[in-house]
Amino acid sequence: MTAASTATVPARQRLLGAALHEFRTRGYAATTVDDLCRAAGVSKGAFFHHFASKEALALAAVEHWNAFTGELFAQAAYHVLPDPRDRVLAYVDLRGELLRGELAEYTCLLGTLVQETYDSHPALRDACRAGIEGHADTLVRDIAAAKKKYAPKATWTPESVALFTQAALQGGFILAKAQDDLAVAADAVAHLHRYIELLLPVPTTSRRTAK
């Protein structure tokens, strides 16, 4: 984005965009208000006109992130697949497709923030928890339908599996940061895909029919 085009974006939106990048790159504690102002190209006065504190901006960034990612997944093509098992697996595959670019471009804002602030900033912790659990909830209906069709006697719950998908993804992001390598996150997604396949086994007769 050029300086001219940046100037046409409202300061609040520029600060939200800066927060998404800076918090995921530097971490919450290491990111200062000055860093955020510099990244957004706004003055400190403009910052405090829109946000009372760095935490207030972080909370707004979480809300912004939830709205953006919620829309992204709500419009994803996997929703039109007729089989619920296929929809769940396609969701996992989409998460793999989103692993591209630099770490800060594909890691999760919520996971990054909550790891650092879960004890020191309870409002941020609660906001991140609500966002992660809210996203997991969007998977429950498909997982429940797939369980009913493919694993009706299984003792696990759709809610627990939906949350596990998020645990596996967040864990993959952590490993990618530790190893500075996108491939390890991609491996985590691939293993998650295999795990879901094992939880929802296709009957042998169905496999023969598919051939």
UniProtKB/TrEMBL annotation:
Pfam families: TetR_C_13, TetR_N
Claim: Transcription is one of the keywords in the record: yes
Keyword Lipoprotein: no
DNA-binding region as annotated in the record: 32-51
PROSITE patterns, A to Z: HTH_TETR_1, HTH_TETR_2
Keywords: DNA-binding, Transcription, Transcription regulation
Residue ranges occupied by any HTH tetR-type domain in the UniProt entry: 9-69
Bilayer-crossing regions: none
Single GO molecular function: DNA binding
Official protein name in the record: Transcriptional regulator
Lineage, highest ranks first: Bacteria, Pseudomonadati, Pseudomonadota, Gammaproteobacteria, Lysobacterales
